[in-house]
Amino acid sequence: MTPTRQVREMRLVVTAADYDRAVAFYRDVLGMPERLAISAPDGRVTILEAGIATLEIADPNQAEYIDRVEVGRRVAGHVRVAFEVADAAATAQTLVDAGATLIAPATRTPWGSDNARLEGPADLQLTLFSGPPEVPGSADDGRGEDR
Question: Which portions of the chain are predicted below pLDDT 50?
Answer without folding.
Answer: 138-143, 147
